[in-house]
Specification:
The complex is a heterodimer. Chain A has helices at residues 2-12, 15-19, 25-37, 39-57, 65-74, 95-118, 123-151; strands spanning 156-161, 167-173, 178-184, 193-201, 204-211, 215-218, 228-235, 248-251. By secondary structure, chain A is of the alpha+beta class. By secondary structure, chain B is an all-alpha fold. The chains are: A alpha+beta, B mainly alpha. Bound molecules: zinc ion. Zinc ion binds next to helix 1 and helix 4 of chain A.
């Protein structure tokens, strides 16, 4: 697909900004996912990180002696993390990884269905195949939409924290009339429940999509007219208006 | 050169250190790290002595405020202890890993919500106070490594500024683009091109 090629080619050029920690959080995450799939970018980032370490070496400075004492005493009360579990699937998946995996599964489903169609089967299967293909494309497009909002020249970021300690940010772009919600550290909303996003249209809450875990989410609907963004826990499937007190309300930049 | 930084008395008062860690120390650091991963505190104190100068210097450069820098550098060093078992030698040297952690923490600190607001005001003030090529020049003259200085001179003006503003000042590439009044896509590619030249000039391998 042509737009995918373009998307990819643009992604490859982000190695430098990524290694210098100069990307916006959502982009950093999207590119991190890309690194998992792209050995050449991975190699380049490793080389750039080693290059950056030389730049760090060039500004080395002796820290005060009290810092040594503080650190060497400090570690007494710090438990070391165990080595990472090698088995795949133990790592919590990010939103983009889920999207991508789903897209692949759907693409496989589509090709199976397409094979069935070639075997001379029904219109219904044909339609299923078409739906699967469209969904796979929609997932890819959402990834691109997230990147587009974050990279918009007028993108602005606001940050907040839920009472549970999750860090959240909203990147909004007036020119694209879209916003991306990002979260890290959200707890499981619980069985039969979901997180729901809202645009706060100066007091009237407008549903803006569901999420169940951390990651970057393209909010549904336009950012125009909204003065803020809210997050609530709702029954699975979401609600037409908030049924619980917001965990967080972020004011959007004017 | 006189610093006109409005952020307070942030000029380094510690002693500049000779360039980083000699290359011969690299295998030793990996050795130390594997001992640290097994909870060896003696190995950690040796690791501290080898890395704390680079970590502290980099954090001071990005965060600028001395008290905050000390706090951040301390967190980074403790994080090296905490995460020691997660270090993967096949993904880069210990030095590279430590510098990445330190830079990440430093930029997170300067980009935290309140800091971001202050910084916007600061930056506007600085932008009026002095042209940015002067900033880049100041950074350059304060580099302790002859090799890094020489390789920096091999970059085009915009490559050099893109890399130094992002790395030493912790600006996002969007902020770099605004500062240099250059389109975003151009900045992305200049950062990459600049790093490629530096990498080749310094003979960096992984
Ligand atoms: Zn790539």
């Amino acid at each position: 697909m042509k737009h995918d090629m373009k998307h990819d080619a643009e992604l490859h050029t982000l190695t430098g900004a990524y290694a210098l920690h100069a990307l916006a959080p959502a982009e950093h995450e999207v590119f991190g996912e890309h690194l998992g799939d792209c050995p050449s970018c991975r190699q380049e980032v490793a080389e750039f990180s080693a290059t950056a370490a030389r730049l760090a070496g060039a500004v080395a400075l002796a820290p005060p002696a009290r810092m040594r004492d503080a650190v060497l005493h400090g570690i007494d009360s710090v438990r070391q993390l165990p080595p990472p579990v090698p088995a795949a699937g133990r790592q919590p998946m990010t939103f983009t990884a889920i999207l991508r995996r789903k897209a692949i599964t759907l693409a496989i489903a589509a090709s199976i269905a397409a094979a069935a169609v070639l075997g001379g089967v029904t219109v219904r299967q044909n339609r299923l195949a078409e739906e699967a293909r469209q969904q796979a494309q929609a997932s890819e497009r959402r990834l691109q939409d997230v990147s587009a909002v974050v990279a918009a020249s007028d993108a602005r970021t606001v940050r907040g924290r839920t009472p549970g300690g999750a860090t959240t940010s909203v990147v909004s772009s007036t020119s694209r009339n879209r916003a991306v919600f990002m979260a890290a550290g959200l707890s499981d909303p619980g069985a039969g429940r979901t997180y729901q996003l809202w645009f706060d249209d100066h007091g009237a809450m407008r549903p803006a999509g569901l999420l169940t875990r951390d990651g970057a989410t393209l909010m549904e609907g336009g950012v125009q007219g909204a003065s803020g963004v809210g997050l609530t826990v709702e029954p699975a499937g979401g609600s037409a208006r908030p049924t619980t007190r917001p965990l967080m309300l972020l004011a959007l930049p004017d | 050169m006189r610093r006109t930084d409005p952020g307070g008395p942030s000029a380094p008062t510690g002693q500049p250190l000779p360039f980083g860690v000699p290359d011969t120390a690299a295998p030793r650091l990996e050795e130390l790290m594997s001992r640290v991963a097994r909870g060896d505190k003696d190995a950690f104190s040796a690791l501290y002595d080898a890395l704390s100068g680079i970590v502290f210097g980099l954090v001071v450069r990005v965060v600028r405020n001395r008290a905050q820098s000390e706090e951040v550098a301390q967190e980074v060093m403790i994080d090296l202890w905490r995460q020691a078992a997660r270090y993967r030698p096949d993904q880069g040297s210990v030095l590279s890993w430590a510098a990445t952690l330190a830079h990440r923490r430093a930029v997170d600190r300067v980009r935290s919500a309140q800091a971001a607001i202050n910084r916007e005001q600061d930056q506007a003030a600085r932008q009026q106070a002095r042209p940015f090529d002067e900033v880049a020049e100041q950074v350059e003259t304060r580099l302790e490594s002859e090799q890094v200085r020489r390789c920096m001179r091999g970059l085009t003006e915009i490559q050099r500024q893109a890399v130094t503003l992002a790395y030493y000042q912790g600006l996002t590439y969007r902020e770099v683009a605004e500062t240099l009044r250059t389109p975003l896509p151009t900045i992305k590619t200049r950062m990459r091109d600049g790093l490629i030249r530096l990498r080749d000039c310094m003979g960096v391998t992984t």
